[in-house]
UniProtKB/TrEMBL annotation:
It comes from Kitasatospora setae (strain ATCC 33774 / DSM 43861 / JCM 3304 / KCC A-0304 / NBRC 14216 / KM-6054) (Streptomyces setae). Residues 12-72 form the HTH iclR-type domain. GO terms for biological process: negative regulation of DNA-templated transcription. One of its GO terms (molecular function) is DNA-binding transcription factor activity. Residues 52-253 form the IclR-ED domain. Keywords: DNA-binding, Membrane, Transcription, Transcription regulation, Transmembrane, Transmembrane helix. Pfam families: HTH_IclR, IclR_C. InterPro entries: GAF-like_dom_sf (IPR029016), HTH_MetabolicPath_Reg (IPR050707), Tscrpt_reg_IclR_C (IPR014757), Tscrpt_reg_IclR_N (IPR005471), WH-like_DNA-bd_sf (IPR036388), WH_DNA-bd_sf (IPR036390). The chain crosses the membrane at residues 199-223. This is Putative IclR family transcriptional regulator.
Length: 253
């Protein structure tokens, strides 16, 4: 066989092996090891590692603590991701971030005139916030303050008219003029918005915004006050951790 015939055949075989790996990884929502994927596909371990590196580089797969699962580029191959699949992917992302930061993580969005807590993940020693008053307490928790900061003046007035700035603790802000403001476009993530015991006594939080077109969302961390000294560092790590994968998951729901 001459080289002109051999090269296309080799490329096709490599593509087939990569697709087999993608199909195998998709069967493990929580991730699988390279050895598991090699066994499932019947590929040599060395070949598996080589293909996995390429797939991770091109974001078809993600690697976290030695486990491989489908990445953001895979969802772009289909026109529409089911709500259940999108929610599962968001839950996995928040779980990883909570584990990495050792802090509870919350994803909230402003949709149809409401501040909604969409998903949350706890960490050891850092429980998620009480969701019962979340929609009415945007002025008190970090995610809500971030969403209010991104709203237009009219949106903010309308929201605060519907949900007045009632105190949840002695530290809750009471005046709209005291709420922070952020530009909807530009470097919004320069300084995370924080709260210390404004929503619940004994808890502190920080949030960074996520803006995609007209869509507004925020991802926040929460820590007990005994760990409040960690909040600036954790918030800075959160700002770095918010990337395309989280944005895709956030606005895909």
């Amino acid at each position: 066989m001459n080289r002109a015939t051999e090269a296309p055949t080799t490329l096709i075989a490599s593509a087939q092996r990569a697709l087999r790996l993608l199909e195998a990884a998709a069967r493990y929502p929580s991730g699988a090891t390279a050895k598991q994927l090699a066994r499932d596909t019947g590929l040599a371990l060395g070949t598996t590692y080589h293909l996995l590196r390429t797939l991770v580089h091109d974001r078809y797969l993600e690697r976290h603590e030695g486990l491989y699962c489908t990445g953001p580029a895979v969802s772009g191959l289909s026109r529409e991701e089911s709500p259940a699949a999108g929610r599962s992917r968001l839950d996995r992302l928040l779980g990883r971030i909570a584990h990495e930061l050792a802090a509870a993580v919350h994803f909230a969005r402003y949709k149809d005139g409401e501040v909604q807590l969409v998903a949350a993940a706890a960490a050891p020693g850092a429980p998620t916030v009480d969701a019962r008053n979340f929609h009415a307490a945007a002025h008190a928790h970090a995610a809500g303050k971030t969403l209010l900061a991104l709203m237009s003046a009219e949106e903010r007035r309308t929201h605060l008219h519907r949900y007045p700035m009632v105190p949840f603790t002695p530290y809750t802000l009471r005046e709209p003029a005291h709420l922070p403001l952020l530009p909807r476009h530009g470097p919004q993530r320069a300084v995370p918005i924080t709260q210390y015991q404004e929503y619940a006594l004994g808890a502190a939080g920080a949030a960074v915004p996520i803006v995609l077109g007209s869509g507004l969302a925020a991802v926040a961390v929460s820590l007990p006050m005994s760990q409040a000294h960690r909040l600036p560092q954790v918030a800075a790590q959160l700002r770095v951790r918010v990337g395309d994968d989280l944005v895709t998951a956030a606005f895909g729901l």
